[in-house]
Amino acid sequence: MSTSSQFEALNPRIIGRCNWVGIVTLIQKEVGRFLNVYMQTIVAPVITLLMFFAVFGVSLRQHAGDETGVSALAFLAPGLLMMTMIQNAFANPASSLIIAKVQGNIVDVLMPPLAAWEILTGMMIGALLRCLMIGVLGFAMMRLIMPLPVHSIGLILGFGLLGNILMAALGIIAGLWAEKFDHMATITNFVVTPLTFLSGTFYALSALPPFWQSLAQLNPFFYMIDGFRSGFIGFAETNHHVGLMLITGIDVVLVILAWVMLRTGYKTKF
To answer: pLDDT tens digit string along 7-39?
Structure first.
């Protein structure tokens, strides 16, 4: 090999405005990470979803759907599906980051020529793909139990996408902030889990006393669940436009905050 060809072989690859190869590689890493333990990350959430569906469907059969004009199972199914997806949208990037920080291999994400927004994009797409797999599998399993109506695919996709983007961004923020697993457990147990369970998944808002109705409307998770459910049953307890604007606004704030934390190396550069 001539000297000139040796020098040509050593020329670095030129990266344009966007490192597409890096983003795709990061997405593959995130997807591969949760698929390696798919029984824990995909199958287990769907089984939990079906258990909630069976237990609460029986216990609330005479009550949950009274105010909405649909059966209890038809009322519960979309809310449980969305609740499961948003919990996993949070867990995927949060666990990825905290495990990398604790094990000391966060450098594998920071060293490649990836901008903050490229890391953010890759991790969020990885989380959304996990949610999509859980959502499709969960929907298919529930369809085997009962005929689940579909009123508006647009509402299902809109609220599903915006809600899971919100939780994925929140998961990245939590993963960057947490320094040990106890910190992550605190956020999960005292923030994410209570807000998801108090989001109207198991009950209609109109069944609550006026004070608790007003309090529930301060919970952004309620708008995710209500909007997503309305795409199936055609009934919403809030205005779709208000819910979409609120969730979109929170999405923008959280995505920017996550980008700033990645950009400044918050708790990742030592």
So the answer is: 455 566 667 678 899 999 999 999 999 999 999
Number of domains in the chain: 1
CB atoms within 10 A of CB 166: 24
Count the Cβ atoms, other than its own, within 10 Å of residue 215. 13
Report the amino acid identity of residue 269.
Answer: K
Q: How far apart are CA 270 and CA 56, in angstroms?
A: 48
Can you give the pLDDT at residue 111? 87
Q: Give the DSSP letter of residue 97.
A: H
Residue whose token pair is 């998770």? 221
* Percent of the chain that is helix, strand, coil (3-state, to 5): 75, 0, 25
| Full residue range of the structural domain in which residue 180 is found | 39-264
Task: With beta carbons less than 8 A apart as the criterion, state whether 82 and 229 touch.
Answer: yes
In a domain, 30, yes or no: no
11: Cβ contacts below 8 Å, ≥ 6 apart? none
Give the Cα separation of 171 and 184 in Å (integer). Answer: 10
Q: Is residue 64 part of a domain?
A: yes
Q: What does the DSSP 8-state code read for residue 39?
A: I
- pLDDT tens profile 172-214: 999 999 999 999 999 999 999 889 888 888 888 877 888 888 8
Single out the residue of 167, 222, 171 nearest to residue 200, CA to CA. Answer: 222
Which pTM value belongs to this model? 0.89
Distance of alpha carbon 183 from the chain centroid:
19
Distance separating alpha carbons of residues 148 and 232, to the nearest angstrom: 8
> According to the model, what pLDDT value does residue 13 have?
66
CA angle 6, 8, 11 (to 5 degrees): 115
